[in-house]
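S.,

Sequence below, as promised.
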Amino acid sequence: MKMQTIFLALAIMAVMSGIASAQYANSVSLTNVSVSPNPVVAGGNATVRFQLYNTYNYWLYGTTLQPTGSYPLLNVSPLNSHPIGVLDPGLNAKYYNYTIAIPNTTPSGTYTLTFTATYMLYSTQSTEIATSSMPVSFYVQGRPMITTQASNPQPSTLYTGYNQTLSLSVQNTGYGTARNVSVTVSGSRGLNILSSVKSFFISNLTRGSEQTEPILISANGTGNPYLVINTTYYSARLNKRFTGTQRINISVAPSAQFTIDSEGPSPGIGATDVPVNFRITNTGTSPAEQLQLNLETPYPVTPIASSAYVNGLQPGASANVTFLVSIDTAGVPGNYPVTLYEQWKQPSGSVNQQFTGSNNYFVTVGETNSAASTYETYAIVIIVVLVILAIVYRRRSGKGRMKAKK
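The prediction came back faster than expected:
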């Protein structure tokens, strides 16, 4: 019976203590609360500033303040319990500042921090411990992250001296919308940007989206050239500016290149099946193998034999090629543009890969066919010589007859 009385007394004391604690719960509140900046962009810091207000009519002792929050805020940057000490009744003058580091990977949304105050109250009968929970909510903007990648190059390999179209994929791999995205492209030494537009603007790029922009480039030599991508963009509410620089490496393979000049005499008006000679030089960085050449001409030049073949041409080496053309009799003397198309293989390519190129030059057409004029000159000279010989012969023959008569 005595033990039952003791247990009953303890139970009554516990219940009364709980009632007392509940009576003094939430006696503390936050006032003059501000969050700066608001909204805060992920990757930055949010500072919560406030004063404490004691609604109880007596002093609170041993007060501590503990902030808690859901992932990813405080799990990444936890804050320890802060000792406050004695809280006067009513508004306490001191301001408290709590700075929260917002992780870069925090998605956009509203997040809540809960500040829990624990304190003691003294009375003539007992000491009570109570708590107050005070939530503070603020908005976090997800941080955008702009990256640029090169995709689907055409052709698949960039060869020295030739062009390649790259598709630049501008992607938002971050956790928030990017606004006013500006992208500027430049090339390192030896890499030329041939596109007339070297920068572009994207007004809005949401999380996970991308936009593709084509760009035409060429390389002057082998090595390790690269594109430099400079990017500027803003957060969704234009309250945070970001900048970034990327380097995209470009693989450049050696290749043959050709220059053309003419050799030999020029055809004249009315010439038929006359040779036109060109000297082709490999100014590139790779040998050209099985080089096929085709000549394309405008009126009045008509190709009769328009193809030529060179078995191999090393870098720096030259070869002479000959084509046969005819010149229309109604043509006009002058310089006429011609195009020489090249097709070849090279060691840097695959087994069946064909390389192609073209060079523009000109053919000079003279007043008459130079070859025909030469033959006519020879004929005239021979005729003159024969006439002179005939006159000399007749004179000598006449003198001989006169001496015989005497």
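The first strand starts at residue 28 and ends at 36.

Coffee later?
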